[in-house]
Amino acid sequence: MRVRRSAFTLVELLVVIAIIGILVGLLLPAVQAAREAARRMSCSNNLKQLGLAMHNYHDAFRTFPQGFGENQEFWSSQILPQLEQGNLFNTLVWANSAYANPAWGTDWTNFNSPNRTACETLVPAFRCPSMAQDTYLNYNSIARRVPVSYRGVAGAKVASDDASTRPAGFNTAEFTALEQINLDGVLYGASRVRFGDIADGTSNTLLIGESYTDCDFVKDNQGMDYFAFFSPQMGLWKAGRLTGTEHSEGLGSAVVQINARKNPTIHGVLMEMSFGSYHTGGASFVFCDGSVRFLPQSLDLVTYQAMATRNRGEVFNSNE
Question: Where are the domains of the chain?
Answer without folding.
Answer: 10-307
